[in-house]
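Expect sequence, tokenised fold; for instance:
***
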Amino acid sequence: MTATIEPSSARISDAILDRPLTLKQVIQTIPKVYFQKDPRKAWFSVLLSMVAVAISYGAIALSPWFLLPVAWFLTGTALTGFFVIGHDCGHRSFANRRWVNNWLGTVIMLPLMYPFHSWRLLHDIHHRHTNNMDIDNAWAPWPEDEYINANRVLQWIYQGMRGWLWWLASVAHWAVLHFDLRNFEPRDRKKVSRSILAVALFAAVFFPTLYWLAGPWGIVKYWLMPWLGYHFWMSTFTLVHHTIPEIQFRPGETWNEVESQLSGTLHCDYPRWVEVLCHDINVHVPHHVSVGIPSYNLRPAYASLKQHWGPLMRETHFSWDLMCTITQQCHIYHPEQAYQRFRDITHQSR
């Protein structure tokens, strides 16, 4: 099964690399009004997410056992809205005052157990080096030799993360990267340590309290399952943003900024209720063109980009076919055709 990706003609990367186009020129085609912060809209998004999370947790509390999966999934989707607000704070596109961004970003990510500054700094690397095989830290595929030389256990884990266990990949990303101070520059480690401490203190209060009120099943029912629902969307969104057979990761020497941000980022339409609860995070092309655009302005900014650069952009709809295409084809890096499948690798680990 193959999902429909538009446009589907000649390689977009060739169109970009053959013209003297800079990212600054692309940004200049977006009306300046879409970069302006609106406190009313920003704080309304916070209110919307808080109400959605409260209602969905009420659904968990009141649902019979056979409806719990629906309530868990709804709650995980609503919690993803918390992350998107923290995402705006991390890019300083929520508020003009830095302390407001830092304070709100830290607090709203606590229920997700995300240390704010850890995530912010690592995510900034992804934006500055999107689809750069040498540097990007979000969903960059393994080269063939790296896969072949990995031990069998790592191969199995990678196969799962690139296959039908893709929805757990952001759990691994969260656990491996965000709590290790070695992943950060020495100048940033103090603020990262504060963020990790904030998460640790929150967990030290939250989990014993939840255990006391609802027991071990309460931790599973009210935290673990909604948290996994959140990570389903976190994994899915991040994967789909940059992973289809037509999007090529490139080594540093051939990497192109405009290609990676304008054409290496996929616009994907999801069901409207998901878009509302997740604050349009999947209108992702304008966000990669400029992180200064607040989430509530992404749709009009995308319309503007599409008007000027439509032939250089890709868009699709979220579907079973799309996920089948990604999980069945987008496995191992290929320098010319973007990806090759696991079954096409002729050698295995030592």
Remarks:
- The longest helix spans residues 189-242.
- Residues 222 and 321 are 32 Å apart (CA to CA).
- The chain has one domain: 12-344.
